[in-house]
Amino acid sequence: QVQLVESGGGLVQAGGSLRLSCAASGRTLRGYAVGWFRQAPGKEREFVATITWSGGSAYYADSVKGRFTISRDNAKNTVYLQMNSLKPEDTAVYHCAIDGPPFGSTLSTDFRSWGQGTQVTVSS
Length: 124
Prior knowledge:
- With 124 residues, the protein is mainly β.
- The protein contains no helices and eleven strands.
- The protein is globular.
């Protein structure tokens, strides 16, 4: 079975930056889209970003567009989320999602494997 190792979360002041990583082992990510979702206390899981299997196209939620960048390194079997200009409303547990449709998806149900999540806290 696939093993996902997420890292990069933590506490940061508003306006700061964090870089999340999700490294997969046990299976290749080639041929499948990957994504990031987040969930804040008392709220439903929210789409953040997705990227196609080739890395040629990426799509973002309106709330993070222009601030976050998703990327992938298929040779390293790793997906990243660069988060800049962080806001307190970005505070959430962030989950890496893999094994999605080749050309991406905003639907959590389209991804069949998930990381355990990493906490991001943005202070005011």
